[in-house]
Design goal:
InterPro entries: PABS, PABS_CS, SAM-dependent_MTases_sf, Spermi_synthase, Spermidine_synt_N, Spermidine_synt_N_sf
Mean pLDDT: 95
Pfam families: Spermine_synt_N, Spermine_synth
GO molecular function: spermidine synthase activity
CATH superfamily of the largest domain: Vaccinia Virus protein VP39
Number of helices: 9
Number of strands: 13
Low-confidence stretches: none
Bound molecules: S-adenosylmethionine
Subunit structure: Homodimer or homotetramer.
Enzyme class: transferase
């Protein structure tokens, strides 16, 4: 388990030092540490940063922030929800900051949102200290289950229209959320016309994880596609997501037209996010 790295500069300023695989460090100037606890799974903290406002940090790694968290949370939810013709039952695996659940509550057509998060402390901390991201958690359609997503999904068959894997990086408790067997369980837990999406990491810094994730999903689902968004606090900014669909082609131009209030996502982004730069086409298709 990684230690959280707060560092104090000679001028007395406090910094969070995020370390990506021992190869890259990103430093955030801190105004205040609001919450810092060890859970049975990871170190959980909420800090107030100079540029990104309140920020959730797990094992020293930034997960979501008040300033750019909406980009990731909108893109992991609105893209699959627009592409599925009639999503009613949605499962989120992970997603402890509750930003994805919050985006889903914007759709009246969704009847049930199950959220399976391994670490209750993440939800408690975000509810108290990160309302900018966690938003309206009193919506009765949101049902929290505090359990391992792998175990939960294994016991389900043909239940969900959409499954959103909103996981942390593939280290610690989230490592299993990037494995072939887990995606195979997701496929079983989806209805015959279901869709799943997961965050598939940085195409620049973690190309092998993206390649492996996309390969698993392509081998299991009839249709699979990768899309991107720019999330400034994730290493490299450019971030990838991969969708698998059992029945419907992943065709943004024929996606349902629906009005939803967002800060990043819109129709043009939906249609363009599947256009990949050449280095990604080469990585995914060679
Ligand atoms: N948006 C963030 C990102 O990409 O960095 C991640 C969102 S959310 C904070 C990720 C959540 O996944 C964490 O709260 C973590 O506790 C949860 N998680 C990790 N492994 C899990 C597992 N096996 N089952 C369920 N939840 C898990």
């Amino acid at each position: 388990m990684t230690e959280v790295n707060w560092i104090e500069n000679q001028d007395g300023s406090l910094w969070l030092k995020e370390d990506d695989r021992g190869n890259l460090q990103i430093h955030y100037r801190l105004k205040e540490i609001l919450y810092s606890e060890q859970s049975p799974f990871q170190h959980v903290s909420i800090v107030d940063t100079a540029d990104f406002g309140r920020t959730l940090v797990l094992d020293g790694v930034v997960q979501t922030t008040a300033i750019d968290g909406h980009i990731y949370n909108e893109m992991i939810t609105h893209v699959p929800i627009h592409l599925h013709p009639n999503p009613k039952k949605v499962l989120i695996i992970g997603g402890g900051d509750c930003g994805a659940a919050r985006e889903l509550t914007k759709y009246e057509r969704i009847e049930q949102i199950d959220m399976v998060e391994i670490d209750e402390l993440v939800v408690k901390a975000c509810k108290t200290y990160l309302p900018e991201v966690s938003g309206n958690l009193s919506d009765p359609r949101v049902r929290f289950v505090f359990d391992d997503g792998v175990k939960f999904v294994k016991e389900k068959e043909q239940v969900y229209d959409c499954i959103i894997v909103d996981s942390s990086d593939p280290v610690g408790p989230a490592e299993v959320l990037f494995e072939y067997d887990f995606y195979a369980s997701l496929k079983r837990a989806l209805k015959d016309d279901g869709m799943m999406v997961c965050q598939s990491q940085s195409p620049i810094f973690h190309p092998s994880i993206l390649k492996q994730t996309a390969t698993h999903i392509r081998s299991l689902f009839r249709y699979a596609k990768t899309y991107t968004a720019v999330v400034p606090t994730y290493p490299g900014g450019l971030w990838s997501f991969t969708i698998g669909s059992k029945k419907y082609p992943i065709d943004p131009s024929s996606a349902r037209k629906e009005t939803v209030t967002t800060k990043y996502f819109n129709r043009g982004i939906l249609e363009s996010c599947f256009v990949l730069p050449e280095f990604m086409n080469e990585l995914l298709n060679k």
